[in-house]
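We were asked to recover a plausible sequence for a given structure. The inputs and outputs are reproduced exactly as logged, with field labels preserved.

PROBLEM: sequence recovery
POSITIONS: 548
GIVEN STRUCTURE:
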């Protein structure tokens, strides 16, 4: 396919300066095969000449007033005003032996022609064919400007989806995951849903979709469990006694280790190989009784007091209904292998490929703990899995700024430390992150900087725009200027997941997630539903559970 279509030629090069090119344009609109193409910010251009083909992206379009020198037949000189159209381009890469590569070995020469590129030409440059390459999947409508993502690089190097409230962020997340479920029959995705928005997008709402529903498991917050015996020592201390002193932690550690060694069911595991962090069941009542016995053996008040504090804190968490999910599988003594089969959708009865964990019913401080522990468990599983190719796993972190913020408060430390570790090391073990946030300026820089692909929807806050601008390569930092004016569901995509950075209008999800704006005009134009009950809401509040 030629990258120099005569009908799409719009100007010539007048200036070349390092990574930028200035074009003198003679028009800003072209027609080719009954389709209009415009010279606009974000459009792709080929600067073709004797040097070869240099692929660029439009970064600026401007019209300047200029004067044209005219000499008539009598030699008189006059000046005629006209509009000089200047187009600034950022160099993206070059085509060598019909293969695209980033950067250039030779800059284009002055007077080379500039040609707009069609969507088919762009996809040809990317090496994408509509039906042949399973590494790439379509994220736009079939009949419009097509765009493909490379799945290996999109998930293999972490992805950030950024956008202010109302920019179409939830719909974009749902659309991408629906596309993955459509193109790949056996994915493995764990979704942390903080507001119970996404089950409806995968057939578990009013609008049914049997294909998505058959592949998706929705774990409601009433069903959610995270057995306390899966916690490592740091997590156990953080949850049950975050203020434990240096003399108390060794006591707790010793008692838990003894109980875990006592409860080994697998005879092939020697006791000396079991550590306090081993995911082996023990009875919390036995732990509390151990502390009570130790306290009774002490005679001095000074030695009794630290043990009494441990007992009170353990009993306090055990009796706190907010932490009921830690005790839920106690009677079953669930083994970690069974827990992972359920979590990953590997139940023998009916395999699932997307597990949406509804964490909307949990208080924020408890939610942080859940996400931190689950993330660590997934990382440890992948660490001990000898071949990461067998079960690649992706974690979707919705509203990530609420539990991995930039600030260093101790209440976020558990989740933040675990997720930052995955961001830095997870890729080599087949564990990827999809970080979703409306406030990129408030999220951990460590996590965000490790993402290889940025899907940036509309951002109106200056701090958020500046953080994104710093994450983009120098040749694209100017593209951040378009972020406030993007349409709903439209994003500037750059990084490893897409070879050429571009503006993309994602396919609308079908079904939609439950994230639409509240329609005040409808609610305030009619009487309140007779079945609505304030008492029902208050009852749920008192019970810490949402009444259906």
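RECOVERED SEQUENCE:
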């Amino acid at each position: 396919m030629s990258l120099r279509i005569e009908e799409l030629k719009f100007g010539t090069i007048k200036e070349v300066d390092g990574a930028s090119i200035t074009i003198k344009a003679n028009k800003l609109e072209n027609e080719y095969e009954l389709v209009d193409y415009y010279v606009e910010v974000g459009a792709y251009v080929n600067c073709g000449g004797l040097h070869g083909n240099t692929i660029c992206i439009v970064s600026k379009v401007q019209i300047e007033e200029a004067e044209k020198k005219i000499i008539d037949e009598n030699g008189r000189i006059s000046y005629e005003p006209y509009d000089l159209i200047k187009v600034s381009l950022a160099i993206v890469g070059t085509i060598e032996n019909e293969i695209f590569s980033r950067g250039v070995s030779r800059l284009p020469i002055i007077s080379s022609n500039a040609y707009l590129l069609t969507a088919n030409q762009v996809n040809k440059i990317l090496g994408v064919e509509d039906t042949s390459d399973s590494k790439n999947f379509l994220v736009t409508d079939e009949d419009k400007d097509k765009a493909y993502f490379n799945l290996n690089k999109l998930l293999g190097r972490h992805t950030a989806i950024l956008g202010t409230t109302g920019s179409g962020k939830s719909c974009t997340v749902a659309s991408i995951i629906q596309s993955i479920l459509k193109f790949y029959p056996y994915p493995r995705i764990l979704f942390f849903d903080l507001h119970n928005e996404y089950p409806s997008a995968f057939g578990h709402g009013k609008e049914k979709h049997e294909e998505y529903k058959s592949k998706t498991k929705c774990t409601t917050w009433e069903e959610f469990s995270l057995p306390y015996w899966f916690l490592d020592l740091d997590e156990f201390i953080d949850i049950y006694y975050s203020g434990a002193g240096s003399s108390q932690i060794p006591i707790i550690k010793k008692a838990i280790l003894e109980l875990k060694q006592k409860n080994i069911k697998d005879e092939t595991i020697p006791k000396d190989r079991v550590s306090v962090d081993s995911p082996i069941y023990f009875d919390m009542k036995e732990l509390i009784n151990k502390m009570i016995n130790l306290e009774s053996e002490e005679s001095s008040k000074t030695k009794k007091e630290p043990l009494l504090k441990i007992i009170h804190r353990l009993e306090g968490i055990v009796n706190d209904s907010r932490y009921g999910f830690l005790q839920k599988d106690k009677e079953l003594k669930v083994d970690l292998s069974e827990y992972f089969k359920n979590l990953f959708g590997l139940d023998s009865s009916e395999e699932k490929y997307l597990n949406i964990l509804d964490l909307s019913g949990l208080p924020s401080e408890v939610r942080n703990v859940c996400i931190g522990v689950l993330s660590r468990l997934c990382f440890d599983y992948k660490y001990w899995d000898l071949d990461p190719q067998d079960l690649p796993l992706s974690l979707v972190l919705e509203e990530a700024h609420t539990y991995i913020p930039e600030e260093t408060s101790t209440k976020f430390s558990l989740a933040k430390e675990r997720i930052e570790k995955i961001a830095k090391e997870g890729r080599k073990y087949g564990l990827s992150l999809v970080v979703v946030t409306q406030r990129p300026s408030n999220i951990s820089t460590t996590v965000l900087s490790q993402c290889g692909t940025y899907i940036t929807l509309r951002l109106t806050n200056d701090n958020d725009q500046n953080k994104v601008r710093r994450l983009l390569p120098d040749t694209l930092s100017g593209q951040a200027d378009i972020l406030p004016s993007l349409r709903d569901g439209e994003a500037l995509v750059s990084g490893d997941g897409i070879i050429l950075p571009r503006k993309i209008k994602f396919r609308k999800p079908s079904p939609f997630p439950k994230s639409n704006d509240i329609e005040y005009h409808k609610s305030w134009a009619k009487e309140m539903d007779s079945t609505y009950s304030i008492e029902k809401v208050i009852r749920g509040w008192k019970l810490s559970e949402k009444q259906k």
